[in-house]
Amino acid sequence: QRQAAERLRDELIQVSLQFSVEASEEDQLYGSVSAHDIQEALAAKGYSVERKNVRLAEPIKSLGVLEVPIHLFEEIDAPVKVWVVRK
């Protein structure tokens, strides 16, 4: 399991997700990007992860680029780059 998690981590490090959302002029989102949204975007790219393993402290509510850790195994997390851009 550890080796499979390490292989998945090596793949997820290369993954970049982009969310196009409506935002105010102050770059605040009308709504948010949640762990569920990130899980669904990863699933669309063929990666199966549970929502509880998306380590997002709180939903993303502003534009920008973040690295969101995805927990894969005991001490193995994979940072996934999440781009939140204006629609």
Quick description:
This protein is of the alpha+beta class. It has helices at 2-12, 35-44, and strands at residues 16-21, 28-33, 60-62, 64-73, 76-86.
Written description of the protein model:
The chain is an alpha+beta fold and 87 residues long. It contains two helices and five strands. The chain has helices at residues 2-12, 35-44, and strands spanning 16-21, 28-33, 60-62, 64-73, 76-86. The strands form two sheets. A three-stranded mixed β-sheet has the order 1-5-4. It has a two-stranded antiparallel sheet with strand order 2-3. The chain is elongated, with a radius of gyration of 13 Å. The model has no long low-confidence stretch (mean pLDDT 95).
Main sheet properties = 3 strands, mixed
Poorly predicted runs of 5 or more residues: none
Rg over CA atoms, rounded to whole Å, is: 13 Å
Number of helices: 2
Assembly of the depicted chains: single chain
Residue fraction in strands: 35-45%
> Would you tell me the overall average pLDDT?
95
Distance linking N and C termini: 39 Å
Residues in helices, as a percent range: 10-25%
Order of neighbouring strands in the sheet with most strands: 1-5-4
* Helix-strand string: HEEHEEE
Overall geometry comes to: elongated
Count the strands? 5
